[in-house]
Structure formats: structure tokens, C-alpha cells
Amino acid sequence: MTGYWESRFKNEGAMWKFEPSDSAIRVLRLFKCEKINEILIPGFGYGRNARLFLDNGFKVTGIEISQSAIDLARANGIGCTIHHGSVTSMPFNKEKYEGIFCYAMIHLLNKRERHNFLSSCYKQLIKNGLMVFIVASKEASLFGSGKYLSKDRYEIAKGLKVYFYDSDSVLKEFSNYGMIECKDIEEPVKFVEGEETVKLKFVICKK
Ligand SMILES: C[S@@+](CC[C@H](N)C(=O)[O-])C[C@H]1O[C@@H](n2cnc3c(N)ncnc32)[C@H](O)[C@@H]1O
Question: Is residue 90 lining ligand 1, measured as CB closer than 6 Å?
């Protein structure tokens, strides 16, 4: 997985530009309503979503596997702490966070890693804290494409393995971690004109 993302960020740079996703804007509103200010962003990328929170006065910490993505974040003025490594090595510190926002990352992990990652996130969340995960959905047009790996998991491009959730698997994987809501969303692809929306699931957990 490191190789896939490292070479994409190295070759393509800030490939999704810097406009935050609609989901990040929704999460910002939610976190503000809940008076959440200190957050963790695992799968930080080069910070296109993190910047929204930083610009709104949040204290942000990231975790990112690709050094090239971290270099891009730095080159674009993002100065918050970003731990370089895999979420499978969490925790990187003893901090507890009021909120965790994870956009399009958990579905890149295998079953055991997803389970351990959720458990690690939950442990680093304060009581009453919120975690939001934006995850791949079986309703997405890419579901079933590429090489079949195991139930609902496909290698959709060389080195890019994705697990696609439905409402049953969301319930199964997130209900032990305080899941309070799961909704289907359609995320506009803002960086490509005329591109169709991507179907994802928006999962909220509360400790
Ligand atoms: C689909 S991208 C989303 C990036 C970012 N959340 C955004 O929306 O701009 C997935 C990100 O997760 C990172 N990533 C993949 N596997 C990871 C892992 N095991 N630990 C930490 N980061 C990982 C990738 O390098 C990439 O930056």
C-alpha cells in the first residue's frame, strides 16, 4: 500500500487540488456544533481536508503513510504535526482527541487491520468524542471491478485494494465502536469537471 500511494503523490502531486470535500465541510459543521476542537486525521494525504479545519482554528494532528504526501503538505504551508507511518502502528502518541475524521482510508485496509484501526481510534478518543469515517460503498460504480480478492474486496488498480461496505458490513464493523449513524452520500468530484459523483457511506461513531 505504501508503494501505491507514494508513487502517486510523487508523480501526480496534489492530484485532488486543495478544495475540501463536501464531507469535510459537513464534518466541520458537526464538530463545531459539538464544540470539538482537537482532532486526529488518519490518512491525512497532503491535507486538502485538513486545511479546512486548520483555517477554522482547529488543532489538527495527522497520520500519513506517504512521505511525498507529507512533503506536499509542507510545501503548501501546512505546519501541523503529521506522524509519518501506517495507521496499523497506532498509537503514535498518548494524546486523546475530541474528534477523528478519516476520509477514504479505512477501506484500504484488510479485515484485521480495519478492526485494529477502529479499536486504536476508539482508544484515542475522549469520552463523548466523535469519529467520522467516509468509506467506499458497494453502490459505487467501481464495485466489482478489477481483481477479486475476497468478499467485497477488490484490487481495482495495480496495488490499490479496496473493501466496499454495505449497511450490514458497516453495522458489523462499526457497532462495537459507538456507531450512531450511517448514511449514503454522493460526493462531487470537484477537481474534475463533469465527473460523476462518487457513492460513499458517511459513518458517525460516538464514545
Ligand atoms: C484516498 S486517499 C485520501 C487522502 C485524504 N484523506 C484526502 O481526502 O485528501 C488515502 C490516503 O491514505 C493514505 N494511507 C493509505 N494507507 C495508509 C495507512 N495504512 N496508514 C496511513 N495512511 C495511509 C494514503 O497515502 C492517502 O494519502
Answer: no
